[in-house]
Write the structure tokens for this entry.
Amino acid sequence: MKIAEEQFTLQDGRTVTIRSAEERDAEAMLAYVRKTSEETHYLIRYPEEISFTLEQEHQIIGDILRSEDSAWLTVFDGDRAVGNCSISRCSGQLKVRHRCNLAIALEQAYCGLGLGTKLLSKARDTAKELGFEQLELGVYADNERAIAAYKKAGFREYGRLPRAFRLKDGTYIDEINMVLFL
Ligand SMILES: CC(C)(COP(=O)(O)OP(=O)(O)OC[C@H]1O[C@@H](n2cnc3c(N)ncnc32)[C@H](O)[C@@H]1OP(=O)(O)O)[C@@H](O)C(=O)NCCC(=O)NCCS
């Protein structure tokens, strides 16, 4: 799904653009995914596990734009992608078609400035528009800022998977599962 473009002013006065990533943004999207994966351990991949080619990224972006059950709300500072919030159908079977997954990550220089809250609210509206009934996500139990942002957006914890993640140094971290009924 293609979303309408919107300007957003961060709490420090900078202005960014929220819009759908397009095929011409493939390189910017790859750079963003690498950067956010390096900056914290809160995403699913280590940077070296990001192996998408430019062509694959191009294809993925096109698929999302044409899709009727997913959307990317991407944040641009000029030509640079600095954040993304994705929503996508959990699965296509009739019994679970009402459920939608959410994932979000901003570059650190854009965190703590109200942007996450803005994207979560926009994602909620977009998911409703697509006909979903609930938004679901998983978050590292030590990610206090993300958990605070999700709770502020109306998500509530419904479960916890012990030792869901194992970091390279052997540390285990639980996953907290959250849901927001639309
Ligand atoms: C998680 C994330 C999307 C939140 O977005 P954000 O723009 O940083 O959050 P916001 O500025 O909108 O803040 C939301 C709330 O979080 C809370 N918060 C902000 N910084 C916090 C911190 N360091 N610790 C605890 N709570 C914090 C505040 O209560 C804030 O609400 P308020 O504005 O009413 O005070 C963003 O920080 C991020 O992308 N982080 C890196 C990647 C990541 O962790 N992704 C999530 C993977 S599940």
Q: What stands out?
A: The radius of gyration is 16 Å. The helical segments are 26-39, 54-66, 115-129, 144-152. The chain has a mean pLDDT of 97. The beta strands are 6-9, 15-19, 70-77, 80-89, 99-106, 134-140, 156-166, 172-181.
